[in-house]
């Protein structure tokens, strides 16, 4: 029963995370911006072509049709996976970095890598899910961010700094829950990579929202798993490797 509840929560929150919605306690640099309303288009690809389909020519602010053709496709994943490309992106935190006066609870979207510091010149995102025999999928998201400057390197450095400052955060709500964040050993990919383990606990239930970030020059390739039980990240490294290969083989 617990697994079924967790799977439902993960599936329901996937599109929100693809659009970088995060908890309602957004980073102070984002307080003036409204949350984007997510819209996704099927991009399952085919084993023969290996290319995304139905990529809209236009989307919301930050959306790049060119970059949206470069997330992982189903032919690079095991059978049973699907990929949905997002057309609306929520803005990142911008160049302003939270100062020491900003409470850790206000930085949860930054600490979980759902938002990053810096301003990407283009973004793309997709929801990746795998149907299981129970009918409740393993769900993750892939986000691509390209920068016109050294923003990719800076975003990763800032994330390490912020997690070092706020490894444990009390839930902003009244449920007595908590969040935990840690940079942990992960696969060595691209020019630089890091793994972030995030979890939230409320009562006896713990959900994990782990991420792998890979820097390729001025681009970040990021995969986030969505609300799995502890230890339920079996596909995360495989997805990061497939996402990196897709990005490297579909562009200059």
* Radius of gyration of CA atoms, rounded to a whole number: 17 Å
User: Distance between termini?
Assistant: 47 Å
Q: What shape does the CA trace take?
A: globular
**pLDDT averaged over residues:** 77
Q: What helical percentage do the residues reach?
A: 10-25%
Portion of residues in beta strands equals: 25-35%
Main sheet record = 10 strands, antiparallel
Low-pLDDT regions? 1-53
Count of DSSP-assigned helices: 4
Order of helices and strands: HEEHEEHEEEEEEH
Number of strands: 10
Structure description:
It is built from four helices and ten strands. Strands 1, 2, 3, 4, 5, 6, 7, 8, 9 and 10 form a ten-stranded antiparallel β-sheet that branches. Helix content is 20%, strand content 26%. The N terminus is likely disordered. With 252 residues, it is an alpha+beta fold. The longest helix has 17 residues. The relative contact order is 0.17. It is globular and about 45 Å long.
List the helices and strands and how they pair.
Elements: H1 2-18, E1 40-42, E2 81-86, H2 108-111, E3 122-130, E4 138-146, H3 151-165, E5 168-170, E6 178-184, E7 192-202, E8 205-208, E9 211-216, E10 219-225, H4 236-249
Antiparallel strand pairs: 1-2, 2-3, 3-4, 4-10, 5-6, 6-7, 7-8, 7-9, 9-10
């Amino acid at each position: 029963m617990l697994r079924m509840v967790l799977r439902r929560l993960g599936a329901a929150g996937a599109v929100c995370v693809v659009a970088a919605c995060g908890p309602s306690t957004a980073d102070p640099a984002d307080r003036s911006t409204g949350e984007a309303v997510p819209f996704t288009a099927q991009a399952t690809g085919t084993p023969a072509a290996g290319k995304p389909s139905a990529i809209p020519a236009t989307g919301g602010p930050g959306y790049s049709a060119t970059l949206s053709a470069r997330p992982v496709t189903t032919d690079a994943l095991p059978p049973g996976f699907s990929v949905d490309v997002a057309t609306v992106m929520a803005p990142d935190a911008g160049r302003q970095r939270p100062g020491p006066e900003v409470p850790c609870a206000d930085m949860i979207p930054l600490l979980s890598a759902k938002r990053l510091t810096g301003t990407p010149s283009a973004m793309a995102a997709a929801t990746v899910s795998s149907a299981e025999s129970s009918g409740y999928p393993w769900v993750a998201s892939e986000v691509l961010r390209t920068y016109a400057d050294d923003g990719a390197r800076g975003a990763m450095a800032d994330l390490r700094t912020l997690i070092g400052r706020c490894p444990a955060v009390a839930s902003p709500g009244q449920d007595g829950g908590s969040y935990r964040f840690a940079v942990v050993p992960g696969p060595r990919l691209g020019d630089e990579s890091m793994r972030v383990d995030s979890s939230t606990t409320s009562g006896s239930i713990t959900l994990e929202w782990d991420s792998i970030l890979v820097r390729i020059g001025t681009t970040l390739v990021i995969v986030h798993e969505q609300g799995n039980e502890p230890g339920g990240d079996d596909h995360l490294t495989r997805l990061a490797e497939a996402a990196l290969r897709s990005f490297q083989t579909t562009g200059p």
